Amino acid sequence: xxxxxxxxxxxxxxxxxxxxxxxxxxxxxxxxxxxxxxxxxxxxxxxxxxxxxxxxxxxxxxxxxxxxxxxxxxxxxxxxxxxxxxxxxxxxxxxxxxxxxxxxxxxxxxxxxxxxxxxxxxx
Length: 123
Known about the structure:
Order of helices and strands: HEHEEHH
CATH architecture of the domain at 17-96: Alpha-Beta Complex
Number of strands: 3
Radius of gyration: 22 Å
Number of helices: 4
């Protein structure tokens, strides 16, 4: 059961403690400064779990529109640059290219006939 304790608004501290910026910023800034195309992260010594680290890094990347992709393979974390190619040449329109990967050209207008065509047949 949950208990509710009454507090006055002025008794609540107006400070938020978070570790996202203290962890994500140095990792991502350091990676971008290396000018590597893809790098594996050595996370030994970090206190965060892999799930927490993945969540924090992805949030930071998305919220700050960084040209970085985080992915995992066999339990290892990798960072990949989206603003350069594998030869180190700059990709000026990297954001547009990433957006186009998510656009589906085969989209159709949703009409009753289209819904009926794909509806489950129950008896």
